[in-house]
Amino acid sequence: MGTVPDEMTIGRFARLCRLSVKQLRHYDEAGLLRPARVDPATGYRYYAPAQARDALTIALLREIDLPLAVITAVLAAPEPDRGRLLSAERDRLADRIDRDRARLALLDRLASGHADHEVIRTTEPARRFAVVRATADPGRIGLAYGECAAQLLATLAGQSWKPPLWGLYPLDLPDDVADGLLVTAAAETDAITTLETVELPAADVVTTVHDGPYAELRLAYHTLFAWIHERGLTPVGPVREAYLIGPGEAEPTDLLTRLMLEVRA
Amino acid sequence: MGTVPDEMTIGRFARLCRLSVKQLRHYDEAGLLRPARVDPATGYRYYAPAQARDALTIALLREIDLPLAVITAVLAAPEPDRGRLLSAERDRLADRIDRDRARLALLDRLASGHADHEVIRTTEPARRFAVVRATADPGRIGLAYGECAAQLLATLAGQSWKPPLWGLYPLDLPDDVADGLLVTAAAETDAITTLETVELPAADVVTTVHDGPYAELRLAYHTLFAWIHERGLTPVGPVREAYLIGPGEAEPTDLLTRLMLEVRA
DNA sequence: GCTGGACCCTCCCACGGTGGGAGAGTCCAG
DNA sequence: CTGGACTCTCCCACCGTGGGAGGGTCCAGC
User: Fold this and answer.
1) pTM, whole model, 2 decimals?
2) Phi then psi for B46, rounded to 5 degrees?
3) Is A37 touching B (CB cutoff 8 A)?
4) Helix ranges, chain A (H)
5) A99: which residues sit within 8 A by CB, 6+ positions away?
6) From CA B184, how far away is CA B176, in angstroms rounded?
7) pLDDT tens across A59-70, in order?
8) CB-based contact (8 Å) between A20 and chain B?
9) What are the C-alpha distances in Å from A90 to residues A96, A206, A232, A246, B107?
10) What is the C-alpha end-to-end distance of chain A, expressed in Å?
11) Phi/psi at B67 (nearest 5 deg)?
12) Residue B59: pLDDT above 60?
């Protein structure tokens, strides 16, 4: 223990731990890694060899892109607690990867130029639906819809209904519905069921068909909304999706979905 | 064309395109999306419905996390050029996902607590290697090593050599070697070959064994360097890796690698 | 002892994109 | 004409890092 050499200057320590001098000063100020000693006269920082472990850990965790605040918590936490902290960050990173993958899919489609959606304005007839509703935060919509659809189909088993399945969603997706988004699975039917029913009257709608995975639906909506707003029209809810070819019927790349948006002048 | 309603205020336009007023002002200042008209007396911005398409495109591309500079270029580029711009961004994003996956693997291992490496200080005997070298930038190390190893094995076919394969790397990985990192595949042998040979003298080394994929090697190095620096020792190059169980011999999760670092007091 | 060069200090600014808030002016419906 | 909703500009904050200015400190070689 006593044979460990003396403290060293910030430059030396920085080279040792593959950090920049600027970083070390920043970590000092942030309380993340205080030098072993600071000369009160000159302000020079001196680091002890024993601090190399923490410095290297910081470098490692920064490489994984953890925020300094988290690294501070990790270093301060007793050994058994670190796993939990790191697991939370792990989940955060996994989420980001998932989001990035969705972005990549969008970007792929955009870059390859297969992003053209033909928009048509037409009159949608009145329809009567049996529906199952749920509330979910955006991002879990697919999951919530799946549960609703399963329940819907189970209840309608043996009843007569006209495919395809539909989905109804509020128009203002990410805005006011901070703590839950209404998800509605719907099946057009005239049969009388125990389920809630919704009557959509005939409407002046703008519509397009999207082929491909649902992660790329935003592209179709982009085209749809651009088309609507360019003409000075106003969309009125709800958003209607008809799953012409839905999951389970084909591969994600072959899904076919009709989007409808009622418009007013 | 003439039936499109008038221009609208920034707040209305913002709600329409799901952007914030702040964002729109920022995009104006950045030259990304200028209002159709700015009242010279009051400074009020007024947007035309026809601008909704660009605004929605900006919102879409921002969602994919493209920098504003890129979005500017995309909007300014003629249609046929957009694909190329977007493809470049696509590749950037794909790279990021790859890096994030490596980070996730590290974080997984850290969080699950299976990150303990036993460090031992020992004397490594002198060894004579037949080697093949290459230069690669960090990130392509694995690729470069693979080629070197293939060449090495092809040349040594029929010759006598003692498994496992080794790898030698400069100690200062990411520092001064900005434009290329020396990668050396090595096989211990006494046979005389047409290959370059390297004689490593006996050395005082610190060593540990890592099991698992190579993406997690940094963890082992972290422990190794922490161990060394805590004791005030100085590592001297090159870094030696012995691939006890290498790729091709087992699944990535079952790889076994011995790391060695010569130290000096 | 002195000097030069390598090192260290603090303080400010920049990046990117967004949001918050202050303080003042503008629009429009009642 | 008034009040409330809207808009304007300007400044600051976030996060982590790097650059640079301007000035002080250390130490080896003379």
Assistant:
1) 0.84
2) -125, 130
3) no
4) 10-17, 21-29, 52-63, 68-76, 79-112, 141-156, 217-230
5) none
6) 18
7) 999 999 999 999
8) no
9) 10, 43, 46, 32, 6
10) 82
11) -65, 150
12) yes
Token representation of residue A150:
């399963």
| Digit-coded pLDDT (tens) for A130-189 | 999 988 876 778 888 999 999 888 888 777 788 889 999 887 654 444 456 788 999 998
Placement of tokens 């998800």 in the chain: A183
Sheet with A37-38: list strands edge to edge.
A8-9, A45-47, A37-38
Set of chain B residues whose Cβ sits within 8 Å of the Cβ of A86? 107, 110-111
Distance of CA B3 to the CA centre of its chain: 53
Contacts of A89 in chain B (CB under 8 A): 107, 111
**Distance (Å, whole) CA A150 – CA A241:** 17
CA nearest to A254, candidates A216, A206, A208: A216
CA–CA separation, B74 vs A115, rounded Å?
15
Q: Give the nucleotide nearest to B67 (CA→C1').
A: C16
Edge-to-edge order in the sheet of strand A203-211? A120-124, A203-211, A256-264, A234-245, A162-169, A181-188, A127-136, A196-200
Q: Do A60 and B3 touch (CB under 8 A)?
A: no
Nearest CA in chain A to B81: A111
8 Å CB contact between A200 and A123: no
Task: Pick the residue of B56, B117, B119, B217 with the most A CBs within 10 A to test the interface with A by mutation.
Answer: B56
Query: Nearest residue on chain A to B84, judged by CA atoms?
Result: A111
The structure tokens 């490489």 sit at A63
Q: Look up the protein residue whose alpha carbon has the minimum distance to the C1' of D5.
A: B11
Do B232 and A49 count as a contact with CB atoms less than 8 A apart?
Answer: yes
Return the exposure string of A102-124: e unless at least 16 CB atoms fall within 10 Å of the residue's CB, then b: bbbbbbbbbbeeebebebeeeeb
